[in-house]
Design goal:
By secondary structure, this protein is α+β, with helices and mostly antiparallel strands. A six-stranded mixed β-sheet has the order 1-2-3-6-5-4. It has one domain: 2-Layer Sandwich (STM4215-like), CATH 3.30.2000.30. It is built from two helices and six strands. The chain is elongated. It is 22% helix and 47% strand.
Length: 129
């Protein structure tokens, strides 16, 4: 399961805790990751275990927009260069950048929550251990 290695690598690169799907209710800063889609590679008649999964990674940082942007760029630079390599210990064929989104949430205690989101299209063998 690639998610285990994604979590570990996101934590290694950013120095923040990473969580699947959403941050816990008592946590304001962290990295959120989730698989959005995972279609099999279209290879004609050849059967393959390769999938092209779209993962959305969100960097949520209170009161520091610049930090959220820097963390996104850090992960983008590290992952976008992968060709026939690894994320953590998981074999990966390629990583492509996808959509980029930003969100600002003003809270009642004069805190601003910044979310910078990046989609990554990761091609990998679904059956890797």
């Amino acid at each position: 399961m690639i998610e285990t290695d994604l979590k570990a690598d996101l934590e290694r690169l950013t120095g923040l805790k990473a969580y699947p799907v959403a941050l816990p209710s008592n946590v304001l800063e962290g990295v959120i990751y989730q698989r959005i889609s995972d279609p099999k590679m279209m290879t004609g008649l050849a059967n393959t275990s390769l999938v092209q999964s779209r993962f959305q990674v969100t960097f949520q940082i209170p009161n520091d927009y610049a930090k959220a942007l820097k963390l996104e760029q850090l992960v983008l630079k590290a992952w976008e260069t992968i060709t026939h390599g690894y994320i953590g210990k998981y074999p990966v064929q390629a990583v492509q950048r996808g959509n980029f989104m930003q969100y600002r949430e003003e809270q009642t205690d004069k805190r601003v929550i910044w979310r910078v989101m990046r989609d990554f299209i990761i091609t990998y063998p679904e059956d890797a251990e």
